[in-house]
Amino acid sequence: MRRLMLLGALFAVVATVWGCIEDIQPKTNNNPKIWFTRAPRNQGVIFQNGATFEWTATDTDDDLGMGQIWVRLDPYLECVIDTQTVCSPPEPCYDVIDTSCIYPVTLRDGWVRVYENTFDVANLPDTSYSFSVKVQDGRGADSILVDHFRVRFDNRPPIIDSVRCPPRKPASPSFQHTFIVYSHDVAANPASASPTDSLTYWYRFAVPSGGRSYETDDFARENRIFAIFIDGVSFPGTYKFRCKAKDRAGNVSQEYVCDFTIERGPR
Asked: Where would I find the beta strands (DSSP E) of the chain?
């Protein structure tokens, strides 16, 4: 009888503990929540051929510590061969062949297991992409976050074709003049070149000693045109107008310089 009473008490304890465990364990397993803290703007365009993705994940069940993370890039394109013709007169022109493959190449396998909340991709040819992050918690519930973006890679600077400058030796020592910069952008893929009206400009107009010189604080579209009255009577000498153009990818042109000289008149 005593043995039966002990067995009954043991079963009662086990049942009580099991009931407590059932009360502690959640009835459902919630999916993790993920959001990007750094990534190209969704449905946006980038003018570089690479990007960095960073993300944060949380789980109300607090079981991410035993979870896993995967990433993938769609589409994964095979290596791209780009041929550029380089000319440096008077030397003959020659072709430069550049073979680029998306980095890292493990992305070609689809989902790739990662162990940090950041991932870099590089050498992306021009097209539309989807970068996905999948986070799975310790009990198998998962969530997927996707960022869609388009690459319009442009690593070539714009070209300043000409500038409306005064004659090297103006006929009149004092006159009104408007400098106008004419330029265009270039890219390996013409569709990736910046439209002409999107280029921004910087300039510096240097006046001979004693006069006021002008320089823009930064690149801006309106800096393409600069109007000024030139007082060569008060400030004879050499005037210099320097300018640069910048495209939407951040490439800056070579500096364009034009100068003119106003001779000192008779006293």
From this structure: 33-38, 44-46, 51-58, 68-74, 80-86, 94-100, 112-114, 118-121, 128-136, 142-151, 159-163, 174-184, 200-206, 214-215, 225-231, 237-246, 256-262
Q: Which CATH number fits domain 159-262: 1.10.10.10, 3.40.50.720, 2.40.50.140, 2.60.40.10?
A: 2.60.40.10
SS3 of 181, please?
strand
Determine what percent of the chain is predicted with pLDDT higher than 90: 63
Per-domain residue ranges of the chain: 29-151, 159-262
65-79, 175-189, 218-232: the lowest-pLDDT one: 65-79
Decide if 247 contacts 201 (C-beta within 8 A).
no
Under 8 Å between Cβ of 7 and 15:
no
CA torsion, ordered 31, 32, 36, 41, to nearest 10 deg: 0
Residue type, 93: C
Asked whether the domain spanning 159-262 has the same topology as the one spanning 29-151, the reply is: yes
What distance, in Å, lies between the first and last C-alpha atoms of the chain?
135
Reference 239, options 201, 203, 209, 202; nearest CA is: 209
Residue 27 sits at the vertex; the CA angle it makes with 26 and 31, to the nearest 5 degrees, is 75
Please state the pTM of the whole predicted model.
0.65
Does the domain at 29-151 match CATH 2.60.40.10? Answer given as yes
Cβ contact 76:108 at 8 Å:
yes
Tell me the pLDDT of the chain averaged across its residues: 87
